[in-house]
């Protein structure tokens, strides 16, 4: 069988499970305002949602609510306020710069297109599509994070390791109407059912759909 056809059939089975199990895509990051979501997703890169929520709940989002709040933040203060977040100094710098771009170019409102969102410092393909889906129910791409990357490789849905290239591979395999279920589904499945460390997962629901995945354990980037 052609490799592309085989992958499409396998992807269809996996997505059917994710769609049935996690039918309402919703991030576990906490936020009250649109720009807080942008900030939370930016902070979550190479960091757990749990840690991000600890920092944002305890203080950060009580002080910074809008793009204007972040744009006017003092860098040294923001770095101190994001301690515990991976690469927090670089992320703090990007948060301030992104706030300024939203204020200067988009009237203080989080934009609704990938092309506009990726003009924000610290925002690339993944972040842009998480924000579009979560805020606006716009699913124009499949965001690939560490969970999606791991399962795309384990279930042989891609030959790539680059996150954006994996997104494009998945988008070629999966009908657009189902794109919304992929990131959220794999994230929750990876977080609560099948974690990254090698373990016996022969009986896990997705592995039962394609048993070879039980022996494929990709290295983290």
CATH topology of the largest domain: Endonuclease III, domain 1
Order of helices and strands: HHHHHHHHHHHH
CATH class of the largest domain: Mainly Alpha
Structural class, by secondary structure, is mainly alpha
- Approximate helicity band: 55-70%
Oligomeric form: single chain
Indicate the CATH architecture of the largest domain: Orthogonal Bundle
**Number of helical regions:** 12
Radius of gyration: 18 Å
First and last CA, distance: 31 Å
Mean pLDDT reading: 95
Largest sheet: none
Would you mind describing this structure in some detail?
The chain is mainly α and 221 residues long. The chain has two domains: 3-25 and 142-215, Endonuclease Iii, domain 2 (Orthogonal Bundle), CATH 1.10.1670; 34-136, Orthogonal Bundle (Endonuclease III, domain 1), CATH 1.10.340. 57% of the residues lie in helices and 0% in strands. Helix 1 packs across helix 11, helix 2 packs antiparallel against helix 6 and helix 9 (146-154) packs across helix 11. The chain is globular and about 55 Å long. The mean pLDDT is 95.
Provide a quick synopsis of the model:
The chain has twelve helices and no strands.
Topology readout:
Blueprint: H1 3-21, H2 34-43, H3 49-63, H4 67-71, H5 75-81, H6 88-106, H7 114-117, H8 125-136, H9 146-154, H10 163-173, H11 182-192, H12 205-209
Which key terms come to mind for this protein?
mainly alpha; Endonuclease III, domain 1; 221 residues; Endonuclease Iii, domain 2; single chain
């Amino acid at each position: 069988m052609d490799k592309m056809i085989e992958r499409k059939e396998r992807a269809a089975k996996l997505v059917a499970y994710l769609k049935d199990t996690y039918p309402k895509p919703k991030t576990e990051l906490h936020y009250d305002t649109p720009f807080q979501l942008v900030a939370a997703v930016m902070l979550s890169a190479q960091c757990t949602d749990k840690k991000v929520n600890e920092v944002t709940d305890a203080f950060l989002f009580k002080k910074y609510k809008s793009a204007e709040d972040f744009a006017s933040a003092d860098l040294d203060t923001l770095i101190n306020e994001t301690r515990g977040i991976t690469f927090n100094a670089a992320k703090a710098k990007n948060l301030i710069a992104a706030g300024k771009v939203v204020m200067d170019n988009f009237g203080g409102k989080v934009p609704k297109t990938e092309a506009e969102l990726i003009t924000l410092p610290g925002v690339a393909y993944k972040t842009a599509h998480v924000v579009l889906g979560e805020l606006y129910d716009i699913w124009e791409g499949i965001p690939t994070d560490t969970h999606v990357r791991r399962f795309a490789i384990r279930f042989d849905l891609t030959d790539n390791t680059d996150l954006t290239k994996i997104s494009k591979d998945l988008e070629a395999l999966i009908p657009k109407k189902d794109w919304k279920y992929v990131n959220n589904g794999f994230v929750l499945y990876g977080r609560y059912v099948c974690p990254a460390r090698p373990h016996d997962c022969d009986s896990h629901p997705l592995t039962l759909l394609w048993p070879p995945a039980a022996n494929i354990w990709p290295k983290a980037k």
